[in-house]
Amino acid sequence: MKTITIGIPAYNEESSIAQILRTLVNQKTNGFVVKQIIVASDGSSDSTVSEAESVSSKNIMVIDGKERKGATYRQNQIMSMANTDCLVLINADIVIKDRLFLKKIITPILDNKADLTSSIVEPLEPENVLQKILYASHILKNDIYEAINEGNNLFTCHGAARAFSKRLYTSFTFQDRPGEDAYSYLVTKQNNFRYAYVSNAICYIQLPASLHDHKKQSVRYLKSSVYMAEFFEENFLSKEYTLPLKIRIEKTLKHLIHKPLEVSLYIVIYYTMNLVSFFTKSKETGKWAISTSSKKIS
């Protein structure tokens, strides 16, 4: 029987950690066994640890890290502890509605067709004007990304939920920089491992409710390609980060017709964030600023 480990790095996740753990404990596990669920609290100052410990399961291990060292450190910690056929790394602040989610995201690995997989990420229903704009932009971007190589590209490798083969997760460690999801994809491609986008495995996220929180996420994402230049060659990065212009134009026009106001406003926000990113000189580590509103799962 194939075995898997689930790892969750967690920083101040008291509002969501118990919910995601209960969801994982109740997943259907035909054809595999969940050997362990490791929650690595990263110096949380709230009730993350006690909330995680409140979920009754012999498979759950909670690490109460007293010092905040960042998500990349905690993911490396989890990987060093895993000894199973597959490792699934997920964020604490996501919603999973499908009881077959785990089976879907690990199947390409267990079938020896991939070494890294990622789920599709969809936003929960928007509650304010900004979230409606970001919701429309999320649908647009997913449409663009899925049109490139059947979705098998850097842009569909989301940190929210990924699965790793044992031969991949034992072969590298995360670097102390934002963009660790892109880093895992780039390591996979550079070292001739295989990536598969699993479009029928869906996890849901809460969109930022304020422009301030969106700025934290957006600038970090936009600067991640700059950080990746510390570890990968320029030509390789250029190839992986390039989105075909024809697809971008076609999909943007399509969504402008469907949601003209929201998409137009997002284009303004996007280019504003690019300017902010350009003039942001500080170098972030794995201890990046957290978007608090996107952790409030409703």
**Please, what is the oligomeric state?**
single chain
DSSP helix fraction: 40-55%
Total of DSSP H or I helical runs spanning 4+ residues: 11
Give the radius of gyration. Answer: 19 Å
List low-pLDDT spans: none
Topology pattern, helix = H, strand = E: EHEHEHEEHEHEHHEHHHH
Question: What's the story with the biggest beta sheet?
Answer: 8 strands, mixed
Strand content: 15-25%
What is the terminal-to-terminal distance? Answer: 37 Å
Detailed description of the structure:
With 298 residues, the protein is an alpha/beta fold. The chain has helices at 17-25, 48-53, 71-81, 101-110, 129-146, 166-169, 180-190, 211-228, 234-241, 245-258, 260-278, and strands spanning 2-10, 32-42, 60-65, 86-90, 94-95, 116-123, 161-165, 195-205. It has an 8-stranded mixed beta sheet, with helices on both faces. It is globular, with a radius of gyration of 19 Å.
Summarize the structure.
By secondary structure, the chain is α/β, with parallel strands linked by helices.
Describe the SSE topology.
Elements lengths: L1 E9 L6 H9 L6 E11 L5 H6 L6 E6 L5 H11 L4 E5 L3 E2 L5 H10 L5 E8 L5 H18 L14 E5 H4 L10 H11 L4 E11 L5 H18 L5 H8 L3 H14 L1 H19 L20
Parallel strand pairs: 1-2, 1-4, 2-3, 6-8
Antiparallel strand pairs: 4-7, 5-8, 6-7
Which descriptors apply to this entry?
8 strands, 8-stranded mixed sheet, 298 residues, alpha/beta, 11 helices
